[in-house]
Amino acid sequence: MKFVKLNNGVEMPMLGFGTYLAKDGNETTSAVKEALKVGYRHIDCAKIYNNEQSVGKGIKESGVPREDIFLVSKVWNTDQGYNSTKKAFSTSLEKLGTDYLDLYLIHWPKPLNSETWQAMEELYDEGKIKAIGVSNFLESHLKDLMKNCKITPMVNQIEYSPKLTQPELCKFCQDNKIQVEAWSPLMQGKIFEIELLKELAEKYKKSIAQVVLRWNIQMDVVTIPKSVTPERIAQNFNIFDFEISKEDMQKICSLNVGHRTGPDPNNFDF
């Protein structure tokens, strides 16, 4: 496993396990247990995924000590604001069966960001969160937040894939010591249609998903693939025994066309 040191010194595993769209109940619990069994130590979830309780059950039943797991959740849009953020955070802790989070994120940029961030800064100061950050923030959103914040976000979790590398945003984050993290790194399965990635998978004797996840890591981007299939969970973890050449890294980067599979952070209605 590779780790990245956040701007407050906390170490974050660069490969995590995503739980978006994993069904609440046995599907999520089993997937989390399988991920931890394989070796993942970074679990990403969110209130809006409606499966935090099942994630917590999977962690508990895995037998892996809580302190060995980097656990992440997010405050949803309807919970933004000072008091409601603190309440939402407490609810997430209760559902996950833990008394702290390793990382807590604002899920989407909304007008109440500054009040939400103030609540998160206080929870961080109290030691209830090891690191705080944002998700889906563009440069303008980050600048607005950073005007009044005491603590610079440690992470920005954004949609990031071979067809959406957001280089200017990544450069801004790098310059401000904000770690970029990728959601939907596999483009909801659309990466399997890309000819170049098929060729590189053959060249490196790896799956297309493994090539893309390895590319993420070599781009210094934390990544959180999601699967509920044991074989895929294991395969996605097995990316630390090969390296993509500089030339091939550039080829993958050249696929960028600014194509989103998810909502535009400047234009969403939820």
Automatic annotation (TrEMBL):
This is Glyoxal reductase. It comes from Candidatus Epulonipiscium fishelsonii.
